[in-house]
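Notes to self after the call with IL:
- keep both proteins in one doc
- input above output, always
- annotate only the second one for now

Protein 1:
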Amino acid sequence: MRFLNYNIQAGIGTRNYTDYLVRLHHQVAATKAKATTLSQIGKFMSEFDIVCLQEIDLGGFRSGFRNQAETLQEASGLPHMITQTNRVVGHISRHGNAIFSKFPIEPLLDEKLPGKVKGRGLLAARIKNVVIANTHLSLGLRDQNYQFQAIADALKPFDRVVLSGDMNCEPSSLHFNEFRNLSDYKLHTSHEQPSFPAWGAKKSLDHILSRGIGISACQVGHEKWSDHLPVMAKIDQV
């Protein structure tokens, strides 16, 4: 099965560090450029069997009060979808994660992760006989430590797991290494596969891991519709 993990930055499409300031209005309002970016992402998603997205807006002012998951489902043609709302900022934004699939989805987990600043989560579903787990961790190392522990506990009952997301940390991170060692996950991304920033990637922050099932052909894409690059892989025969 073809698998995609992508932090889509709510379709904002930051192209360089300066854009974080000069295109600040894209952070808080719906724009034609954002709609075009979402259309491109949706078409890209159609090439995959399972897709995990982070930083998707689920119906705030900045998305024109339209659920971006529904927009992307329509553009991609992927028939099955579940979403998770993690942080609501007034009427401006509804931050979340989403899982899309060509195959039926059995929802399993919608966990809010611990942290000093709330708004991070773990979303998991069974697709065929594999648990697909999607997450987006905090920036702080202390929060990441607690969040990795929570993820390990939540996914412990399941034998065949693909875990992906924006971990906001490099493979060499102390807490990331502890999590993998204690939970027996195999990491399929590396320092040689940087995904951030998209316009000159230097940091490997977006990762795909597995336990009890094989992953092959893991690579970082070149598509620049976000400040992150997409990460792709193949889930071996299930």
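Protein 2 (the one to annotate):
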Amino acid sequence: MTDTPPLLDRYVRQMRYPPIGRQGQQHLLDSRVLLCGCGALGSVIANTLVRAGVGFLRIVDRDFLELNNLQRQVLYDEQDVADGLPKAVAAEAKLRRINSQVRIEAIVADVAPTNIEHLADDVHLILDGTDNFETRFLLNDAAVKLGMPWVYGGCIGCEGQTMTIVPGQTPCLRCLMPEAPPPGSTPTCDSAGILGPIVNVIASVQANEALKILSGNLDAINRSLLVFELWDNRIRQVGLDSLREQIDCPTCRGREFPWLEGRRGSHTAVLCGRNSVQLSYPDRHPIDLEHLARKLDGVGRVSRNRFLLRFEVETYTITVFPDGRVIVGGTDNVSEARTVHAKYIGA
């Protein structure tokens, strides 16, 4: 690599790996990625891909930083928490300092049926950094409809799993799991906890699959479901070769996209490990945070920046975003969160 152009100098060790080489690195530099969620999984994925030289990374995340995130969300530090920054904004600032060659686009928003196709219409790959199955089924619908690869990942406790999906070639998420688990039927970060090492393992596998796809090595992807149980020292590889042919998948075969069309899913979400509920109102106009701050002044403690407004009252912390989303902290009960929202923010 003695004649490596200056643009590629930083990637010389990566290019020495034969499946990447100079051609693969150029593919990476020309590639565009949508990362949905930049919390635990997403922050590791973003860090890895930006260092690897993926040319464009669009980060979409709905949430803001809290102190308990720092145990496993590797891009952030205490100052980001103190600044009250949305995760996407804090991630963008860090990633630009890591690699100025990469274009980063941070979007503070909820990934929803109303925006996912627009978010994905100019990228080559979708990566899952989310924490809920509703969004994952939405990503699956969008990816299959667009014929775009995506990589699923999830973890809880010290166990995690990941699966690479290439529409038309591999089973999709709905082939593996016909329905999203009902709310309350699976463990959460609140009930089961989560350890940082499993986050790093799953996110690293996801990032590695992304590098294979984006560098032109599609034949090298893992076509099985990988399950890691780190505490019990077990790794399982579940073969999926015949699943696509055996299952009459309504998404793969029937071209049905109920999550993408908004016929499935809700506009509320209990946030993992947060004792918080997000309330979304996609049909409402943007919120004037300055006006809302004046309205709430004297009712409770109000703080605001250009990205969000935070209001502390009673045992609740209410965070309001300009797009109308509200996160009610202090409860994981959706009905209670709606009541608090109506009382202080308005119906």
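Annotation: The chain has a mean pLDDT of 91. The domain at 31-246 is CATH 3.40.50.720 (Rossmann fold).
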